[in-house]
Known about the structure:
Layout: H1 3-17, E1 20-28, E2 31-38, E3 47-51, H2 58-69, E4 74-78, E5 87-88, H3 95-108, E6 115-120, H4 122-133, E7 138-144, E8 150-151, H5 152-162, H6 167-171, H7 176-185, H8 195-205, H9 209-219, E9 220-221, E10 227-232, H10 240-250, E11 254-259, H11 266-269, H12 271-289
Parallel strand pairs: 3-4, 3-6, 6-7, 8-9, 10-11
Antiparallel strand pairs: 1-2, 2-4, 2-5
Helix pairs in contact: 3-4, 7-8
Amino acid sequence: MNILSWYVSVLYKIMKLIGMQPKEVEIEPGTVMHFFAPCERDVQKPNVVLVHGFAGDGLVTWQLQILSLRKKYNVYVPDLIFFGKSYSTRSERSTRFQADCLAKALKKLGVEEKCVYVGFSYGGFVGFQFAEHYPELVGSMVITGSSVAWSESLNRKALNRIGFNSMAEVLLPTTVEGVKTLLHVGSYSFPPMPKFFYKHFLEVMFNNRKERAELLAGLVVPDENTIYLLWGKEDVLVDQEAAISLKERLGGKGMLKMVEKAGHLVLQERPFVFNDYLNEMLASLAIENSY
């Protein structure tokens, strides 16, 4: 007996006891998204959508959060396409496709108003697409262990840190030792487990390998151009807070320099300092663009 399969069957029973039920939503012929959703939706409660990462399905990933949240919220837990019990015969493999399927499925479940979207890892990448293309369904977001986009440079740095040649090697293990490595790489301190646990995890959690490998390949995007932000530190029209917020929104591609003792007219007020910074930035961009 596979111990993880048995444990999931127990989780199904627990979900039923707490008012959650599995549902299969046909988005279109050949595309089905599996959910755990409230047995009875309470229109007085806010909606929360919990979206899993790459190494598990919705229920296994979010089991403890479902137990914590379900009294105060209508909790919806999908399996993304090619994970858990969700599948598609279509050829799309993008995070936009996942977001499209999720939005259509939620609407078929009667969710028309704004939700709180909670995305973990791969679910975070899907979430940014979801928020961009379906703003009518997103009130706010909670993102953990993810980014707006997974660029080539982020991918390269991550692989260097963990000592792998590709993300497929670590996220789609083919051996018991590979599963063990995945779980330990993803944890600060993963508890010791018997070897059969990793074997059973491998047997249950990595279906649709070909499709998932294609999802990973489609996740990595080319690096975007660096955007330098050159600001007067005493600007009261578009202040420091706005500059820092813009830098944060740009993520890794945003670089901010502040010119001391200068306001909005920084380029006229402190031209020599401004020009020094500008020349530095242009030289840096010339080097960057030469690669």
